[in-house]
């Protein structure tokens, strides 16, 4: 079977490479020629561990190729995966223009039966719209089936997540298309959950919103723990041992970011309004997330005295480690606040780069951790890269002017840092 992946962003490239790895012939299609040329030369347009090697391997094996020409690509495929972006529009709704453009090219160029699967996160009912858009673009009627097959991979561990998913969700009403999907995924050992298209679409939103809710819950709890001298990390560990709660997504920090949680929760709230339902919990989830970093900045400013004229090292700016993605990263809000407070900032990140137009004399990005710490008064750790966990904090201390460490992800060993002479503060973290 020939698989066509439409959209060669994060989800598209990972999905394509995973199918190539499973032995299928894959074509990646994207109107952006710069992207397809760079991918054809074995260069990813984003940072993700493990993907570069796999890309080069499968370019060589001939199992994957990239193009910007839709006609042949659509014609030669048996199965098409839509992996195009669904950004938020001004109202918070998911903007479906890329899904619509993709479905129109499918309709225009298809000449025989195809299974068309949506991986992009799309509002409830998109499956149905997609069928209409394809049919309207066809000049002669050709049969097809549409499947909703949401993707749950995380940035930073995309390859592992795509090869070992907790479940494969298939929203589809055609037995033939369900069989095609089963064949496609047969080498992956994961439960296969077949349901209605709308349900599959809802499962994706509901899962992301639930994970964000867990995070906002522990983040808000951390504020209480801060006042009652209890360590939120211990509380979360104890809670997570209950298998009904589970240990994951209970790490308190400066808040969630990224390309999915903020966008998907907004889209859910928009949908709820549209259908006359209330999702008041999610409104609170957003509120806690938006106030979490400022709550801790206030506490940290008190510890330091003031941010004015202080030199602050920001460690890790990506929204999470092992990615260079800055979308909705809490570090950006923190940097903006510190600039307004008159601090001088040096930023370090193993992969992510601040956009050049943000940089100034007051805000520099440096390549070495040592350069960021030189003469600084305080460190604010915004994403938990291994690089910082493994750093030689005994040696680094000598570089600093004052030794305040504000650990926005609770990942450094606070007791050890205190023994070394740092003034260590985390998130809702009372040390023994
Ligand atoms: C998320 C979903 O996990 C994934 O299933 C979906 O396909 C896309 O959205 P991603 O955004 O890549 O994945 O990263 P994730 O690991 O979920 O982290 C999201 C944010 O939550 C990050 O900012 C992270 O730092 C934060 N987070 C995560 C916490 O603050 N605490 C936690 O315990 C876990």
Automatic annotation (TrEMBL):
The UDP-glucose/GDP-mannose dehydrogenase C-terminal domain, residue ranges: 313-414
Class in the EC hierarchy, top level: oxidoreductase
InterPro entries associated with the record: 6-PGluconate_DH-like_C_sf (IPR008927), NAD(P)-bd_dom_sf (IPR036291), UDP-Glc/GDP-Man (IPR017476), UDP-Glc/GDP-Man_DH_C (IPR014027), UDP-Glc/GDP-Man_DH_C_sf (IPR036220), UDP-Glc/GDP-Man_DH_dimer (IPR014026), UDP-Glc/GDP-Man_DH_N (IPR001732), UDPglc_DH_bac (IPR028357)
Annotated metabolic or biological route of this protein: Nucleotide-sugar biosynthesis; UDP-alpha-D-glucuronate biosynthesis; UDP-alpha-D-glucuronate from UDP-alpha-D-glucose: step 1/1
EC numbers for this chain: 1.1.1.22
Keyword DNA damage among UniProt keywords: no
Catalytic activity field: UDP-alpha-D-glucose + 2 NAD(+) + H2O = UDP-alpha-D-glucuronate + 2 NADH + 3 H(+)
Superkingdom of origin: Bacteria
Keywords, comma-separated and alphabetical: NAD, Oxidoreductase
NCBIfam families assigned to the protein according to its UniProt record, in alphabetical order: NDP-sugDHase (TIGR03026)
Family recorded in the similarity comment: Belongs to the UDP-glucose/GDP-mannose dehydrogenase family.
Official protein name in the record: UDP-glucose 6-dehydrogenase
Organism: Paenibacillus radicis
Lineage: Bacteria, Bacillati, Bacillota, Bacilli, Bacillales
């Amino acid at each position: 079977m020939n698989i066509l992946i439409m959209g060669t962003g994060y989800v598209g490239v990972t999905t394509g490479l995973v199918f190539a790895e499973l032995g299928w012939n894959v074509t990646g299609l994207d109107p952006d020629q710069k992207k397809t040329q760079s991918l054809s030369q074995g260069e990813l347009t984003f940072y993700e561990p493990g993907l570069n090697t796999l890309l080069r391997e499968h370019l060589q094996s001939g199992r994957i190729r990239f193009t910007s020409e839709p006609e042949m690509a659509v014609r030669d495929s048996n199965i098409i995966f839509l992996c195009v972006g669904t950004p938020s529009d001004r109202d918070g709704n998911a903007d479906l223009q890329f899904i619509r453009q993709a479905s129109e090219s499918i309709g225009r160029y298809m000449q025989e039966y195809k299974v068309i699967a949506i991986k992009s996160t799309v509002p409830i009912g998109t499956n149905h719209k997609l069928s209409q858009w394809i049919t309207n673009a066809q000049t002669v009627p050709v049969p097809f089936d549409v499947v909703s097959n949401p993707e749950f991979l995380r940035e930073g561990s995309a390859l592992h997540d795509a090869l070992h998913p907790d479940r494969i969700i298939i929203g589809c009403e055609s037995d033939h298309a369900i069989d095609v999907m089963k064949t496609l995924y047969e080498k992956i050992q994961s439960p296969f959950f077949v349901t209605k298209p709308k349900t599959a679409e809802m499962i994706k939103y509901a899962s992301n919103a639930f994970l964000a809710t867990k995070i906002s819950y522990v983040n808000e709890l951390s504020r209480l723990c801060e006042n009652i001298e209890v360590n939120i990390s211990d509380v979360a560990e104890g809670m997570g041992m209950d298998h009904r709660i589970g240990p994951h997504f209970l790490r308190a920090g400066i808040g969630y970011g990224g390309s999915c949680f903020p966008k998907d929760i907004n889209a859910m709230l928009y949908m709820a309004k549209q259908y006359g339902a209330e999702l008041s919990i999610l409104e609170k989830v957003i509120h806690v997330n938006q106030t979490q970093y400022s709550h801790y900045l206030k506490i940290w400013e008190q510890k330091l005295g003031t941010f004015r004229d202080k030199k602050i090292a920001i460690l890790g700016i990506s929204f999470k480690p092992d990615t260079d993605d800055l979308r909705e990263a809490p570090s950006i809000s923190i940097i903006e606040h510190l600039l307004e407070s008159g601090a001088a900032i040096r930023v370090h990140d193993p992969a992510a780069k601040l956009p050049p137009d943000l940089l100034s004399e007051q805000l520099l990005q440096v390549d070495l951790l040592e350069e960021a710490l030189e003469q600084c008064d305080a460190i604010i750790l915004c994403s938990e890269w291994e690089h910082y966990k493994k750093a030689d904090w005994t040696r680094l201390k000598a570089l600093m002017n004052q030794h305040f460490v504000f650990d926005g992800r609770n990942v450094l060993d606070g007791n050890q840092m205190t023994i070394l002479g740092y003034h260590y503060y985390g998130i809702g973290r009372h040390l023994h």
